[in-house]
Amino acid sequence: MKTETLVLRLAPIALALVLAGCATPLPLPPDTPPAAPAAFKEVEGTRFAALPPAEAQPRGDWWKAFADPVLDDLIARADRSNTSIATAAAHLEQARALMRAAAADRLPQIGASAGANRATLTPGTGAPPGTKDTVLSAGLDASYDADLFGRLRKASTAASLDADASAALLQSARLLVRAGVAQTYFRLRALDAERTIVRQTVAAYDDTLRLTERRMQAGDLAELDFVRVRAEVAATQSQALALDRERAQVEHALAVLLGELPSNYTLAEVEWSGTPPHIPAGLPSALLTRRPDVSAAQRSMLAAQARVGVAQAAWFPDLSLTASGGYASTDLGDLFKWSARAWGIGALFSLPIFDGGRRDAGIDKAKAELDAAAAGYREQVLAAFRDVEDALSSLRLLSEQADAQAQAVASASRATVLSDARYRNGYVSQLDLLDARRSELANRREALQVRAAQYQATVGLIEALGGGWDATPVAGAASTPQTVASNDTAARSR
Known about the structure:
A 4-stranded antiparallel sheet has the order 1-2-3-4, with no helix packed on it. 59% of the residues lie in helices and 10% in strands. The chain is elongated and about 135 Å long. It has helices at residues 2-20, 69-81, 83-104, 151-217, 223-257, 284-290, 292-313, 358-424, 430-465, 489-493; strands at residues 109-120, 132-145, 318-329, 341-350. It is α+β, with helices and mostly antiparallel strands and 494 residues long.
C-alpha cells in the first residue's frame, strides 16, 4: 500500500519530467538565412577581405574617406543631436532594463514587512463578545522560484536577445543618419555647383541679349532674334530660381538631420571638386555580420524562438519556496521580545490541468511570432544583398556614364566656341548660337548630376555594407571645402 501511495504521489512529477523533453523550442528552418554567394555579381578581379563581425560595434569613421572637414563636423553634430539616434538609444535603455528585470526574476526575492491589525475576536476564543484586540507584526519575507523547467531562464534569454537587437538597431540608426547626412551634404554641394553653372550661363545670355538689342536697334537684326534671346534668358533665370528653391529645401532637410532648427542653419557655398573614393565591397559571406539591421533581425528571431520555450514551459509545474521570520505581539512593548518571535517556511508545487485552451493558444501565438521573425530575418538578408548589388551596379554604370558624358561636354563646348566665331562673322544665325549654348549647358549639368550620383552611390554602398572600417582618406578623392556657416550658437562656439 505504501509503495502504491508513493507511486501516485510521484506520478505528476514523473509526467512533468517527461513532458519537459518537449519544451525545447522549435528548430529554425535550415533555409532561414539564404546562402551567401561566393562573390558579388558586380565585383571582378581582386576580392577584398572583410573585417571581423561587429554587429553592435561602432561603424567606423568611414566618412573620413571623403577627406572633407565640413562633412566630419556635420556628422559629429548629428551624432550629438539627431532625434532618431536619441530614440534608438532610449529603446536600447528600455530593452536593457527589461533584461535586468527578467534576470532578477531568477533570483531570491527578499522583503521587509510591518503591520498592525485590529479586529474583533472570534467567538469561542474565551473572550467576551465584542472584545477587540490589536496584533502588531514585523519581519522579513523571502521567496524563490526554483524554475525547474527553465521558464524564467528562457524568458531571461529572450530579453537578453531583445537587448542585443536594440543595440544593433542603435548602430543601424547611427549608420542611417550618418549616411543621410553625407548624401544630403553632397546633394547640397552638387546643387551649389549646378547653380554656379546656370548663373554663369545667365550672365553669358545677358551679354548676348545686350548685343542683340543694340544690333536690332541699329537695324542689323530682326526683332524675332531679339525676342528669342530674351526668352532664353528668362527660361534660364527660371531654372536658376528652381535650383535655389531646391537648395533651400535640401538645406532644411540637413538641418533636421543635425537636430537643429532650419531657421537657424545655413551651409556656406564653396567650390566643389574631386571624385568619390573607391570602396572595397568585401566578401558576401561577411556581409551578414557587418549589417547591424541584419544582426537585429537575427536577434529578434532568436528571441522569438526562446519565447516559444517560455510558452511551452507554462504547461509544466512551478515550485515556489517561501520563508518568513519576525515578531508578532499584541503589545508594542513586547513586539521585539524573544518570546514574540514567529517564523515559517513553505513550498508550493502547482501543476496546470485545465485552462480552456489558454496555454495552447499562447504556444500557437509564440510559434506564429517565430515564423514571422524568421521570415523577417530572411527578408532582411535578401534586402542586404540587393542593396550591395544595387550600389555596385550603379557605381559601375555611373563610371561608364561619366566617361561618355565627359566626351559630350567636350564636344558641346567646342561646338559653342565654333558657333560663336561663325556667328560673329555672320555665317550662322543667332538661333544656331543659342542652340549650341543650350546644348553645352545641358551637358555640363548632366555631367555634374552624374558625378553627384557617384557620390550618392558611394555612400549608398558604404551604408549597404554596414560601414565597419576606419577609412583612410584618399588623396584628391573628394572636395576640400574649408568653411561652414551657421547662425546657431553651437556653430559660433566652434
